[in-house]
């Protein structure tokens, strides 16, 4: 890719030729499998999107001697930062290919020779494609756009594709953040509509119905639509059929490649497809990434989740991605978990003043601290409850890439870069659109003056 390549110029990276790619259901299935491969790439949700969520926040600390993710951790970034360029490229790869798959599916559904069994399979793939496109949009807008409700810039969101993929050398323009969120919700609705048309089901290694509702719940939380966030999270939990995990099972699930009772949607990895040196495992392993003393201090000694951090190491080594016994580089990568849905219900209920509901949902994760034996041990006021939930999200979701995005949506000011910068208002910060995209000449707008809000 040259210095003036646009990632939106489909000639640059798109393997799907929409003119003749989808002649059969098997063609669609192969392309759908490609979406999952791209999603699980280290350039997107297999590493970088997740790592940005912790290393740009106050959870994780990069090791300067290895150099890996130090630029993100220290905010020593530019519009040529490779990790940001890769996220943009692979996010739009998923968006563009999803759009072409959906169009290919519609053509096959309109074909009178397509059987009912084939239509069931096609509607399943259509539901997944809409869901994955919504997920890609969600991550992209939260990296390259300001938080929902903060930015009135009509071009502060994403370049959107609805019915048609972007053609090579086509001029583009970014939408607003609000318009991007509307597209995400539209894609979610279309995914759920397609799921209603098929009896086919998929497990938690695929973007199943519960995962679509989980994405809706997270999206609604970010939009501060708390009633809808609660409803969607509960729908996700009802579909997943929640089972509380015992301590041993919870701790052991991080060392297993099987689907756990916590998983709603997880990226599956194997010893043959484990991202190796580009994995989160390696980032937190031989590359020296570790968690901050501040995170460790948020745990009590009676919280068994603290045993997922080796505090006896020279630095605080987190162990969610330490791999399996036969392969230290191999771990599944959770994208949505049952515990996150419970925490969404807790936070949204607290904002609505439904404090009993909030405590009931919160207890699901909080009881992992043995000092908390009932809801009566949880805070009783709205302010204290919301403060507890913010820390509980850190305790439960550390190393899973949510902290930076949480602080941006809530306005919490952070101490980052291992204490180098304090009181950083991350809510005002947005990453630049990659220079390759801007310089390609297809009129994609830059985030103006983005560097003015770097930490100082």
Automatic annotation (TrEMBL):
Coiled coil: none annotated. The lineage of its organism: Bacteria, Pseudomonadati, Bacteroidota, Bacteroidia, Marinilabiliales. Transmembrane segments: none annotated. This is Glycan metabolism protein RagB. Pfam families: SusD-like_3, SusD_RagB. SUPFAM superfamilies: TPR-like. Signal peptide: none annotated. Residues 7-221 form the SusD-like N-terminal domain. It is found in: Cell outer membrane.
């Amino acid at each position: 890719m040259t210095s003036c390549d646009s990632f939106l110029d489909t000639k640059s990276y798109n393997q799907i030729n929409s003119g003749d790619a989808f002649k059969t259901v098997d063609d669609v299935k192969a392309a759908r499998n490609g979406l999952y491969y791209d999603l699980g790439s280290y350039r997107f949700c297999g590493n970088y999107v997740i790592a940005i969520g912790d290393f740009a926040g106050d959870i994780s600390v990069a090791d300067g001697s290895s150099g890996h993710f130090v630029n993100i951790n220290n905010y020593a970034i530019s519009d040529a930062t490779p990790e940001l360029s890769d996220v943009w490229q692979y996010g739009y790869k998923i968006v563009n290919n999803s759009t072409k798959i959906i169009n290919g599916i519609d053509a096959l559904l309109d074909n009178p020779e397509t059987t009912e069994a084939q239509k069931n399979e096609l509607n399943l793939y259509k539901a997944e494609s809409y869901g994955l496109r919504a997920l890609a949009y969600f991550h992209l807008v939260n990296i390259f756009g300001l938080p929902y409700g903060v930015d009135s810039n009509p071009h502060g969101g994403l370049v959107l594709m609805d019915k048609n993929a972007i053609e090579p050398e086509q001029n583009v323009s970014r939408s607003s953040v609000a318009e991007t969120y509307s597209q995400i919700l539209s894609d979610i609705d279309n995914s759920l509509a397609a799921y209603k048309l098929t009896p086919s089901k998929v497990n938690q290694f695929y973007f199943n119905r519960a995962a679509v509702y989980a994405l809706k719940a997270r999206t609604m939380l970010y939009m501060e639509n708390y009633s809808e966030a609660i409803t969607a999270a509960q729908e996700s939990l009802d579909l997943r059929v929640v089972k509380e995990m015992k301590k041993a099972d919870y701790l052991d699930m991080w060392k297993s490649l099987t689907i756990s009772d916590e998983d709603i949607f997880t990226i599956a990895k194997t010893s043959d497809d484990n991202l190796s040196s580009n994995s989160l495992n390696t980032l937190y392993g031989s590359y020296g990434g570790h968690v901050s003393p501040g995170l460790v201090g948020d745990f009590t000694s009676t919280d068994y989740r603290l045993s997922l951090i080796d505090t006896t190491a020279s630095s605080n080594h987190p162990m969610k991605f330490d791999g399996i016994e036969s392969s230290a580089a191999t771990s599944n990568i959770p994208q949505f978990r049952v515990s996150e849905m419970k925490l969404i219900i807790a936070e949204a209920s607290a904002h609505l003043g439904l404090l009993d509901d909030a405590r009931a949902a919160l207890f699901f994760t909080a009881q992992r601290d043995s000092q908390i034996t009932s809801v009566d041990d949880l805070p009783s006021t709205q302010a204290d409850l919301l403060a507890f939930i913010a820390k509980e999200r850190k305790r439960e979701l550390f190393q899973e890439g949510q902290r930076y995005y949480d602080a941006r949506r809530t306005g919490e000011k952070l101490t980052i870069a291992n204490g180098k910068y304090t009181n950083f208002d991350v809510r005002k910060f947005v990453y630049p659109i990659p220079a390759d995209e801007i310089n390609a000449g297809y009129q994609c707008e830059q985030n103006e003056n983005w560097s003015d809000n770097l930490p100082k």
